[in-house]
Amino acid sequence: xxxxxxxxxxxxxxxxxxxxxxxxxxxxxxxxxxxxxxxxxxxxxxxxxxxxxxxxxxxxxxxxxxxxxxxxxxxxxxxxxxxxxxxxxxxxxxxxxxxxxxxxxxxxxxxxxxxxxxxxxxxxxxxxx
Length: 129
Description:
By secondary structure, the protein is α+β, with helices and mostly antiparallel strands. It has one domain (12-125): Impact, N-terminal domain (Ribosomal Protein S5, domain 2, 2-Layer Sandwich). It has helices at residues 35-45, 49-52, 77-88, 109-125, and strands at 12-20, 23-31, 56-63, 66-70, 93-100. The chain has a 5-stranded antiparallel sheet, sandwiched between helices. A hairpin with a 2-residue loop joins β1 (12-20) and β2 (23-31). The protein is globular, with a radius of gyration of 14 Å.
């Protein structure tokens, strides 16, 4: 996939896959081969106003140049996604876990919800993890 003005990235969007104490989690993924494509995927996702206004759009990607991650305010969550992707042997993909904060702090459970969301994505894509 090469980003250009005429094509949009193809997103595998599962929508809200789980909730916990009012917080909602969604997961999205796409094939990518460079940082510019990761940015294009994030821009495409955020064209949807609900995702643009989400509390966090945490993501990780494994590219030919190595792994990248961003917490988007959910400290440590990008690393959780990246480690799961590495264990599954994924390459040239980005996975984004979106959280809409529900008003109650989840503490360490927030990492379990991120893992659960990534597992939903793996299952949907037929990826053994």
